[in-house]
TrEMBL record:
InterPro entries the UniProt entry points to: FAD-binding_MO, FAD/NAD-bd_sf, Flavin_mOase-like
UniProt keyword annotations, A-Z: FAD, Flavoprotein, Monooxygenase, NADP, Oxidoreductase
Ranges of compositional bias, category Low complexity: 498-507
GO MF term (any one): flavin adenine dinucleotide binding
Residue segments, region Disordered: 486-507
Protein name: Cation diffusion facilitator CzcD-associated flavoprotein CzcO
Gly residues biased stretches: 486-497
Family the entry assigns: Belongs to the FAD-binding monooxygenase family.
Entry-linked PANTHER family: MONOOXYGENASE, PUTATIVE (AFU_ORTHOLOGUE AFUA_8G02570)-RELATED
Organism from which the protein derives: Asanoa ferruginea
Length: 507
């Protein structure tokens, strides 16, 4: 039986994979590609998470695609509406036939003689393993494990006689009406769940070890809606997107340049929305500077409203042990609970957990350096997507997809079969790929690729910088090596690889 061959294999049918498919379909319509999705549905995160109140923590004008206007009045959107938007995008762009569900990529091996990846794929629903080949792999499967979330070891966990739930595996039949709920955590998931459950549960407590910076944001973007009304959905979306990109960037720069002023401003904004005399510094003043970790947004101040209404509260303490009917804190206080929600984070994994080899050598991501934040040093014909940590994560998706298509078009034009980033200066200093203090990153930082101290090895977190870097017509770079098929071959025949590279750089 003949092995199927693809020009591009996209791994993951979430927001990044659907975006990559759309750009390939539009910019390079002759390319043969497939999108492999391990789960039984598209949408990635937005199909996986089912906890109460699941929503975006960025506005959809920047979190959504540049090419597809966000038409809803609500800029902070619920998961069902985001999922509908993503699936509309797939259908409108003819991607549905390209998506293969229950297909999990287990490993991929690149052979320089054939300039191809051989990919091992498991059918999750049947257990059958197959192989296919591809010229390129585009890893769009996200940055965390879908099959398990992160839960620390809690002393006495087995003693608790109520229900323990992790948000990543929310039971559809969980009944919390009239129940006492403790949500362990203080990140985006926790501040979403608490107000969403507070209207139904008897009481909800957010138990945090360390406070997080929290900002209220209107669910509806009044100016954005006015722009869409008067300019139409396409132009209105474009102008709203520009406005919100600039706003996100301004907030980040203000926080980094004037951290103490930012601290005071955020505290003042929080205090205005909390009950008079509330201990703001105890529960809403983190020990780190703003944007050392990602800010949490609460739409229309819903968390503060629940606290004012008395249906929710915040406790800052450490867990001593779980008890039969709740949690005993380090202070000696007991928190009664019928349900404990462990909103304690994600398990990050590099490259979706796929094992890569190049000419028989196993690729250890930690030994590589990221090229333009989308390829790995020494790894040919492989691209991946990682978004921003200081603004909408997916703002970078479109830019990377555009650059990827430019790169493939350049290779087609010149007859190149292999593209491999190589570091010219082996002594170049490196540092962690993500300069970010979140716990889920710190836990695996030694397993992730590195970044350098200069372009193109510097991982940009600036949209403006990336527009200049990734939207440029030229993709050639002295540290991006092109060649024809074969270890020593070259496009056009007769030239050595170095000659081809120099010709490419000089063109």
């Amino acid at each position: 039986m003949a092995v199927e061959h693809l020009d591009v294999l996209i791994v993951g049918a979430g927001i990044s994979g659907i975006g990559a498919g759309r750009y390939l379909k539009t910019e390079l319509p002759a390319k043969r590609f497939a999108i492999l999705e391990a789960r039984g549905a598209s949408g990635g995160t937005w199909d996986l998470f089912r906890y109460p109140g699941t929503r975006s923590d960025s506005d959809l004008h920047t979190f959504g695609y540049e090419f597809k206007p966000w038409r809803d009045e609500e800029a902070i959107a619920s998961a069902p509406r985001i999922l509908e938007y993503l699936r509309e995008t797939a259908t409108e762009n003819g991607l549905d036939p390209h998506i293969r569900y229950h297909h999990r990529v287990r490993g991929a091996a690149f052979d320089s003689e054939t300039a191809q990846w051989t990919v091992v794929v498991e059918r999750v629903d049947t257990g059958v393993t197959t192989t296919l080949t591809a010229n390129w792999i585009f890893a769009a499967g996200g940055y965390y494990r879908y099959d398990e979330g992160f839960t620390p070891e809690f002393t006495g966990r087995d003693r608790f006689q109520g229900t323990i739930v992790h948000p990543q595996h929310w039971p559809e039949d969980l009944d919390y009406q009239g129940k006492r709920v403790v949500v362990v955590g203080s990140g985006a998931t926790a501040v979403t769940i608490v107000p969403a459950m507070a209207g139904t549960a008897a009481h909800v407590t957010m138990l945090q070890r360390t406070p997080t910076y929290i900002l209220s944001m209107p669910t509806k973007d009044a100016l954005g809606n006015a722009l869409k009304k008067h300019l139409g959905p396409v132009r209105g979306h474009a102008w709203t997107r520009r406005k919100n990109i600039a706003q996100q960037r301004w907030i980040w720069r203000f926080c980094k340049r004037y951290p103490e002023r930012a601290r005071r401003l955020i505290r003042w904004l929080n205090a205005r929305q909390l009950p008079e005399g509330y201990p703001v510094d105890e529960h809403f003043r983190p020990p780190y500077d703003p944007w050392d970790q990602r800010l949490c947004l609460v739409p229309d101040g819903d968390l503060f409203k629940a606290i004012r209404a008395g249906t929710a509260d915040v406790v800052t303490d450490r867990i001593e042990t779980f008890t039969e009917d709740g949690i005993r804190l380090g202070s000696g206080r007991d928190l009664p609970a019928d349900i404990i929600v462990t909103a304690t984070g994600l398990n990050v994994q590099a490259l979706g957990g796929v094992t890569l080899t190049v000419d028989g050598a196993v690729v250890n991501p930690a030994d590589t350096v990221a090229y333009k934040g989308m390829m790995l040093s020494g790894v040919p014909n492989f691209a991946f997507i990682v978004g921003y940590t200081n603004s909408s994560w997916t703002l970078k998706v479109g830019l990377l997809c555009e650059h990827f298509c430019l790169l493939l078009a350049h290779m087609d034009k010149h007859g190149y079969a292999i593209c491999r980033p190589e570091i010219a200066d082996p002594a170049m200093p490196t540092r962690p790929f993500l300069d970010f203090g979140a716990g889920y990153i710190r836990r695996v930082i030694d397993q992730l690729p590195r970044q350098g101290d200069r372009l193109p090895w510097l991982t940009s977190m600036s949209y403006d910088t990336d527009v200049r870097l990734l939207r440029a017509d030229r993709v050639v770079d002295p540290e991006l090596h092109f060649s024809g098929s074969g270890r020593n071959g070259a496009a056009g025949g007769g030239q050595g690889q170095g000659a081809v590279e120099q010709a490419g750089v000089a063109e």
